[in-house]
Design goal:
By secondary structure, the chain is an alpha/beta fold. It has helices at residues 14-24, 37-46, 63-72, 91-99, 112-148, 158-184, 189-211; strands at 6-10, 30-34, 51-55, 81-85, 104-107. Strand 3, helix 3 (63-72) and strand 4 form a beta-alpha-beta unit. 29% of the residues are buried.
Length: 224
């Protein structure tokens, strides 16, 4: 069973959080509320999120300050942040949002369909990365097993290698289709860059898996 991705919604106004939940409910993912920057940072200590929707204007710690804290933490620095704002739409204000680490900056009122489409891209990228980590973990287990097995006691690796290769091929096909879709639709540069990074990771994993084939040198290949 594929685990649902978590999406963090940060806004100090309950009615705004309710509206975001209504818009994103069709994605069938786990929506997590936070009514302040402090509450958002607390949630990020224990859970992994596919994307963060962050209101700019909040009492106390505003969206810019919250984003700065998120980007300073190693655990959370790579989570995409979409800023939502109803104030000053000038270029300086927008630049400040991107400088704080946002992948997008959307003014209220926004088109629900556009917001849902943007969030769905990052959810899909997150899912692909989760699949990649699972395949990498299986590969590491196989590498460790090969290193520890004594002569005559090694388990037959062909079946596991075939299963790993098939699973990886499925992820590669999905990642290729996603990259083509992003390119055709001229989606945000940040999403395109994330997809390209995912494909590079897949290429490294494929090379490592190929190195495990019988008679192929480089059994100690690693996934970067």
């Amino acid at each position: 069973m594929v685990q649902k991705a978590k999406i963090l919604l940060v806004d100090d106004r309950p009615e705004n959080l309710l509206a975001l939940e209504a818009i994103l409910s069709a994605l069938d993912q786990t929506l997590v509320r936070a009514s302040s920057g402090e509450e958002a940072l607390k949630a990020l200590l224990t859970d992994d999120f596919a994307v963060i929707l962050l209101d700019v204007q909040m009492p106390g710690m505003d969206g810019f300050e919250t984003a700065a804290h998120i980007k300073r933490r190693e655990r959370t620095r790579d989570i995409p942040i979409i800023f939502l704002t109803a104030i000053n739409h000038g270029p300086h204000h927008t630049f400040r949002g991107y400088a704080a680490g946002a992948v997008d900056y959307i003014s209220k009122p926004f088109d629900p369909w556009v917001l849902r489409a943007k969030v769905s891209v990052f959810v899909e990228l997150y899912m692909k990365n989760c699949q990649l980590r699972e395949q990498a973990a299986l590969l590491r287990l196989q590498l460790e097993g090969n290193g520890k097995a004594e002569a005559g006691e090694a388990k037959e690796p062909a079946g596991l290698l075939a299963e790993l290769s098939a699973r990886l091929a499925a992820v590669e096909e999905q990642a290729e289709a996603l990259s083509k879709q992003l390119g055709d639709e001229s989606t945000d540069a940040a999403a395109v860059a994330t997809a390209a990074h995912l494909e590079r990771k897949l290429t490294g994993l494929r090379r490592a898996l190929d190195a495990l084939e019988p008679g192929t040198p480089g059994d100690q290949a690693a996934v970067n």
